Structure formats: C-alpha cells, structure tokens
Amino acid sequence: MNILIVGCGKVGSMLASQLDQMGHDVAVLDREEAHFALLDSDFSGYTICGVPIDQDVLKQAGIKSCDAVLAMTEDDNVNIMVCQMAREIFHIKTVLARIFDPKREKIFSTFNIRTISPTNLTVDMVLSALSGTYEARHTLIGNATLSYYTVYPQKEWIGRHLKDLRLPDTHLLGALRTNGDFTLIQNDQEILRPGDLLVAARVID
Questions:
Q1: Each residue's pLDDT tens digit, 47-72
Q2: How far apart (Å, rounded) are the C-alpha atoms in residues 31 and 34?
C-alpha cells in the first residue's frame, strides 16, 4: 500500500517505521524536520517538512497516489482537517485520525472519518483490569472502535442460561467452552458451565 502519515511524533514515527519494514510505500509529513530523527535509522520511505493542511504540501507528499492517509499529529483540529481534505479533495477512501478529546469523536463521525482515541483506549484497558476481564482486543468497524473481552463469570452464574446473563454497559456475545468451542448467547437452551469464559464487546469510540 501507498500510505501517507501526517505527524512524526512517537506514534507516527513508530507506525511509519513498522509499515516500512512490512514493505509498504510510506511517506511521512511533519512541520518540524527534527521529528524525523524518531524514525528508524533504516527507514526507506519519504519525508517532507511542511504545513499538513496545505494542499500543495500534501500533493508534494504524494497524497494523490495514496491508498490510505493516517493523521497522527497531537492536534485534533489538524487531524480532522487533514482527513477532511484527504477524503473530500483527494478522494482517499481509507483515512484514520488519532484524537485526544473523546468528545470530538462525533465531529469526526459526521464526516465519516475513522478515529482512534488514546484516552478511551487507556480508560478501557484500566477498567478491564479492574473488572477481572482480560485479553481485550480492539477492532475498527466503520467509524467505531469495538473492544472485545473474555470475562470470568461470577460463580452464581454457573448453570444459568446464557441468554439471561447481563454485563453492565457491555454486550454479551456468548461463551467460550473449555474444549475451545464457542456458543452464541442466542442459543436459548445453552447454559453456562464450570470453566467457561464469557465473551463480550462494547463500543469505546
């Protein structure tokens, strides 16, 4: 893939270096040339210093031929503007923005822009640890980030029908059996057995 990363901070530089190692064609745009020092020494992609919301700078960075644009700066406003320009002016289908203020997620979704919120992800992982869940996985579906968990059930739930079980602020999907099988919660006759793990999901972005 031909990928443009806007913002060469800790996240942007790590993404650029790993995508480069995976064989993708990567260009990195940042307004501070010194930030490119964060890239791996063997980074073989293209770097350009300039204002990220300048159309001419974006063209110079090769946005017209990009398959994806990732806005990873530390400024939410810059990220949303870059993504808007990528989608509306340059017609890039895959755009992704990092946002720090979760309240702005609705703004991004209005423009059909996928987002990743470090704030929401951190809170979600801490809550998972406190609630006894583990092996959380995050997946982008449309403009939402879904977090999937396996959860140790309460002892008093053993023997109850899966369809009757409830977890706060979470959608219960089913049970992972000790033999590796997965049973959906929609199966009316299925009960929770000793050793089973519950599988759940919730939207965090």
A1: 999 999 999 999 999 999 999 999 99
A2: 9
